[in-house]
Structure formats: structure tokens, C-alpha cells
Design goal:
This protein is α/β, with parallel strands linked by helices and 599 residues long. The protein has helices spanning 34-44, 58-74, 90-102, 121-135, 153-161, 165-170, 179-182, 184-197, 201-218, 224-227, 229-241, 248-266, 275-286, 301-316, 320-341, 355-368, 378-389, 392-413, 419-422, 430-454, 490-498, 520-536, 548-560; strands at residues 4-10, 20-22, 25-26, 51-56, 78-83, 109-113, 139-145, 173-177, 476-480, 503-506, 539-544, 564-578, 584-597.
């Protein structure tokens, strides 16, 4: 179990006794050493300190060690002196850094007073505390006694010599709690971990000092949206980890809603302004997961599109195994849609909304594409095969998505056990090959959903061969975003029609992934491919949103073709419901306002 420790530097100044206040509560007497005032103030808040560790140069030790030791011991503290050099060279700064590390034990609760740090000592101390906070698991709170608020040192010293008690009764030096600022880098590091991996355990763990400090500072007025945001992210992270297809969208909505609410609170607290940037990153990283795709039993386009968005998100966060498992379920959902489109509404008494129908649909479609040689439902399989042959684009993309997914999912989920998989030698390029397979499977699934949505009978790849005839296509307002048209409100769809640029349609083949390592040339190639496909669909206007650099490149390329580009503006509408027990439930939606053209 850790100790409650005060760690402080001690300088060589002639310290003047003054009154200090922490969070508006002043000390009753004047204190020569801010360390004593801080200990008294913390004790008054029921947060006593047991041990004081004082880092001192030889000069400071000779001048003040006896006096401050006596005063701290009178407050029932054990006192330990820590000898440090003056810090006049990089070598001495590193020596100070290492010496600080020797002062702590694992899980100590440290109150770091940096008031009397000289020159580079405060920054060295803060960096050391940040480092050992992670390495030793210590909890760190940072305080600063703002003596300079009282005026110049020489003026205050003179008033002390003149026994100006009225001045010292009226003028009190505040002790600033800098802990919220100290832990901001830890919050940012945790957000970066979330953005890389999609796992929130580090965010929840590392943000605790921040939320605790905020709770102490604001007490009952501490905003639940901000202090509870790490837990909201953990719930979303857990839903992703156990692959709850039915919960991810709703959890993402909550995170985004609370992130927006938290920003409103931060605007009222200027000292928390840096968190605005963190919240924006959290919101943006979760944005692709938000939505309510509808009940899976109905297999609507919006549900299937949302599942594909989750697969994309998992892929972008390098969670390959989960992405393939999720993609496998999406392929089976597409198999159910294929059976429904082929006129199969019942199998052995089971309806498409039944799990048993779903389980059989995968095998039937596997038979229809030749991946299975025999099934019990051969007659249905033959009917589905004939339907797929009359819809070659669906057949081709279902086969690609199914086979790539099945081949990789089996070996990944079964840890490469089995004779066939075990014979494959592990190589340095194996993981990269599987990642590329995942990209291919996502592309095939994207095209499959497009084909199922439109139920076009021409081969998708034939779209690539359309030449000058593209101008004869029906004009369309094309969706170049990760927000499927099925999820648009009626006002948004009607507003798009009123632009007079054609019916809103999805991009054939869907929007591609934007790899995080992509450079400017890669973005330019992606934009060229997307615009080429859009032109062959008869694009006259486009909703362009998503990854910033790709959005910029698309707008430039489309405008060169005299294609008008728009973004959708929204307004947050919040509501509160007060329950009989007094608890308040807040909710908000982002309502479409208008289409705003890029200029």
C-alpha cells in the first residue's frame, strides 16, 4: 500500500511568512514555508500527508533545513532530506531526475509542491513526476503557492519588517491546484492509444486523476458529460471487444453526445480549454461507428452498411481478427438478403428473421457459388444459384467477399491449428498479406451492398468500361461520405432533391479506406478513382465529407469538372426529462439544417 507523500524543492531565498489559501479556504496563521500551509490545507480537506521529502541543494539545506524540519514535524510529519545538485549542467539535471525516482515507492500518493523550484528545477520535477507516475504507478497532485500575487518580494518583505499585520490579513496568497493541467498530457496519450487501437482501458485508467481533480474543484457542479466520458468510451470499447453488433452504434451515439455536452462545459472553465482538442479527436474517431442501422432481423440496407462501417473501423485500428469475424457475419446477413431477393421466404418453417434461417442461408449461398458440394436444401440452393447467375454483379462480389473472409477467418479464429493451416510457414509478410486480404474483402462487401441495394443485373466491373455515354446517364447527387443515404433524415433527402442536381445515390463500389500511412500521391490517386466512378454514374452534385485530406482533394477534382460540392449542416437539439426521483436524463439529436455549398 502506498504512502501519502509531500515532495517539494527548497530554495535559498529569505522566505516571508504570509497567509495562503487553497480553493478559497485561507490558513488561520501566517506560514514561512508554503509546504506547511499546503499540509494544513490538505488536512482540513481530510487528505492528510504522512511524509515530507524535501529536495535541497547544500546551500538550501544549510540555510533552511532545521527550521522547516521543526515546523513540519510539529504537524506530525516524518521529514526526509534529499540531496540534489544545483542543476548547472545536463548531467546534474539527469542526476536530479534519478534522485527523484529513488524517493518513491510503488503506488505512493504524491503531493508535488513546485513553488520553490529554481530555474530548471520545476520542469525537471514535472517531467520526472510524469515519468514515475507511469513507471511506479504513483498518483501525483501538483500545487503552486503564488506568493507573487501579493506584490514584489522586496515590498512584501518590507511590510513584514514593518509589522504591517493589516496587509497580511487582507492579502492572501492563493495555492493553485495545477493537477488538471499536469494530467492533460496523460489524457492526450490515452486518446492517442484509443485512436490507434480502439481500446479505452488506458483512457479510463489514465484520466482518473483529471476527473478526480475536476470533481474536487467543481464538486456538485462537475459536469457528468465530462467526468463520465471515459466510462462511456469504455462501454463502447467493451461492445467492440465482444463484438456486440446491436450495441456499438448506440454506444457511439452516447460518446458523441456527451463529448458535445462536455465541450459546452469546458467553455465555461477557461483552465480546461485544452481539453477541447481532445474531445474533438474523441468525437471524430467515434463518428464512423455512430448510428442506428435498424433491427438486424429486417436486414435493411442501413443495418448492413453500419456493419460494414464497423468492419472498416476495426481494420483501420489493426484489429484484423475481429474485423474478419464481423465481416463473416455481414456476409451471412447478405446471404439472407440474397435468399429474400430470390423469393425464399421460409426454410423448414423458419422465417428470415429467425436465427435458424440465417444459419441455413450461409450454407445455401455457399452451395450456390460452388463453395459447397452438397446441402440438405438442394432445391432451394438450385433456385438461389439460378437467381445469382441472373445477377452476375451480386454473384461475383458475394463470392469474393465470402471466400476471402472464410479462408482467413478460419485460420485466424482457430489460431492456425489443423494440418492445412499449420503447414503454412510464418513469414514477415504474412500479416501484411492478411491485411491486404481484409481490404479486398471489404471492397467486395462494399460493392455487394451497393448491388443488393440497387439490385442491378449488370456486372459491376462493366461500370468501369462506360465511356462517353456517361453523359447520357440520369443526373445524380452522389454521396461521397461515410453516412449512408438510408440514414439520412427525410429533410436531408428532400433538401438534396431540391438542389435540382438529381436523385441522391451511393457511389458505385463505396468509399475506400484511407490508410493512415497514405501520402499526398496516394490521396490524389484515391480522389482520381472516386471522381472517375462518380462521373460514370452521371454525377451533377456531391455530398463530400470524411477524412480531411481526401475531402479536400475530392472537392478540387470535382470542381474542375464543374461538379458542385456540398456539406450537410446540423443543429444539436437537446432535451431533458426529470424522473420522479429527481434524476435527469439528457438526450440530444443532430438535426439536418441545410446543404451548404463549398466555395
Amino acid at each position: 500500500m502506498g504512502r501519502d507523500v509531500l515532495f517539494s524543492f527548497l530554495g535559498t531565498n529569505d522566505y516571508v511568512p504570509v497567509r495562503y489559501s487553497l480553493r478559497g479556504a485561507p490558513t488561520s496563521t501566517r506560514e514561512t514555508f508554503v509546504q506547511c500551509a499546503l499540509v494544513r490545507s490538505l488536512k482540513a480537506e481530510n487528505r492528510p500527508v504522512d511524509l515530507a521529502i524535501l529536495a535541497m541543494t547544500k546551500e538550501a539545506k544549510d540555510k533552511h533545513s532545521t527550521a522547516i524540519r521543526d515546523q513540519l514535524q510539529s504537524l506530525e510529519l516524518l521529514v526526509q532530506a534529499l540531496d540534489i545538485p544545483t542543476g548547472n549542467s545536463e548531467e546534474e539535471l539527469w542526476e536530479i531526475f534519478k534522485t527523484i525516482g529513488t524517493a518513491f515507492q510503488r503506488d505512493d500518493r504524491v503531493v508535488f509542491d513546485l513553488t520553490h523550484g529554481f530555474r530548471s528545477l520545476p520542469s525537471t520535477g514535472l517531467l520526472a513526476m510524469s515519468y514515475f507516475r507511469h513507471v511506479l504507478g504513483i498518483d501525483v497532485q501538483v500545487y503552486y503557492g503564488a506568493f507573487e500575487v501579493l506584490g514584489s518580494f522586496h515590498d512584501v518583505k518590507q511590510r513584514h519588517k514593518d509589522n504591517d499585520e493589516a496587509f497580511f490579513q487582507e492579502n492572501i496568497a492563493p495555492i493553485f491546484d495545477l493537477t488538471p493541467m499536469f494530467v492533460l498530457p496523460a489524457w492526450a496519450e490515452a486518446v492517442a492509444e484509443w485512436k490507434r487501437t480502439g481500446r479505452a482501458s488506458g483512457l479510463v485508467q489514465q484520466s482518473q486523476p483529471h476527473t478526480a481533480a475536476l470533481q474536487r474543484a467543481l464538486k456538485r457542479e462537475a459536469p457528468r458529460a465530462l467526468t463520465g466520458l471515459p466510462q462511456d468510451l469504455k462501454m463502447l470499447s467493451d461492445a467492440l471487444m465482444i463484438m456486440r453488433h446491436d450495441s456499438i452504434g448506440a454506444r457511439a451515439n452516447e460518446v458523441i453526445e456527451h463529448a458535445e455536452e462536455a465541450k459546452e462545459h469546458i467553455e465555461k472553465e477557461p483552465r480546461l480549454a485544452p481539453l477541447t482538442y481532445v474531445l474533438d479527436q474523441v468525437r471524430d474517431s467515434v463518428e464512423p461507428l455512430r448510428g442506428n442501422g435498424g433491427a438486424w432481423q429486417d436486414y435493411p440496407d442501413s443495418y448492413l452498411r453500419h456493419q460494414l462501417q464497423i468492419v472498416r473501423w476495426l481494420s483501420e485500428h489493426n484489429r484484423i481478427v475481429e474485423a474478419f469475424s464481423f465481416l463473416r457475419e455481414l456476409v451471412i446477413s447478405c446471404a439472407v438478403r440474397i435468399l429474400k431477393n430470390a423469393g425464399i421466404e421460409e426454410i423448414d418453417g423458419f422465417k428470415p428473421s429467425d436465427v435458424d434461417f440465417r444459419e441455413k442461408a450461409g450454407g445455401i449461398c455457399a452451395y450456390a457459388i460452388g463453395a459447397k458440394s452438397d446441402i440438405k436444401e438442394k432445391e432451394i440452393g438450385t433456385q438461389v444459384k439460378a437467381w445469382l447467375q441472373s445477377h452476375p454483379s451480386i454473384l461475383e462480389n458475394f463470392r469474393d467477399a465470402s471466400q476471402i473472409t472464410q479462408n482467413n477467418r478460419n485460420r485466424l479464429d482457430h489460431c492456425w491449428m489443423g494440418e492445412e493451416h499449420g503447414r503454412q510457414r510464418f513469414t514477415k509478410s504474412m500479416a501484411e498479406t492478411i491485411s491486404k486480404d481484409l481490404e479486398r474483402a471489404i471492397t467486395a462487401a462494399d460493392r455487394l451492398l451497393h448491388c443488393l441495394s440497387n439490385e442491378i443485373s449488370s456486372n459491376y466491373n462493366e461500370l468501369q468500361d462506360i465511356g462517353p455515354g456517361a453523359s447520357a446517364l440520369q443526373p445524380c447527387f452522389i454521396n461521397l461520405s461515410n453516412h449512408p443515404i438510408d440514414t439520412w433524415s427525410e429533410a436531408q433527402r428532400q433538401g438534396a432533391l431540391e438542389l435540382g442536381l438529381g436523385t441522391p445515390v451511393e457511389l458505385a463500389g463505396g468509399m475506400p479506406l484511407v490508410p493512415p500511412e497514405a501520402g499526398p500521391d496516394d490521396i490524389a490517386k484515391l480522389a482520381e478513382d472516386i471522381v472517375g466512378r462518380a462521373m460514370k454514374q452521371g454525377v451533377r452534385g456531391a455530398f463530400v465529407a470524411g477524412e480531411f485530406t481526401l475531402t479536400y482533394a475530392l472537392i478540387q477534382a470535382l470542381c474542375r469538372q464543374n461538379i458542385r460540392c456540398f456539406t450537410a449542416t446540423t443543429k444539436r437539439q437537446a432535451s431533458e426529462v426529470v424522473a420522479p426521483d429527481g434524476s435527469v436524463t439528457r438526450s440530444s439529436v443532430f438535426a439536418f439544417v441545410r446543404w451548404r455549398e463549398y466555395v
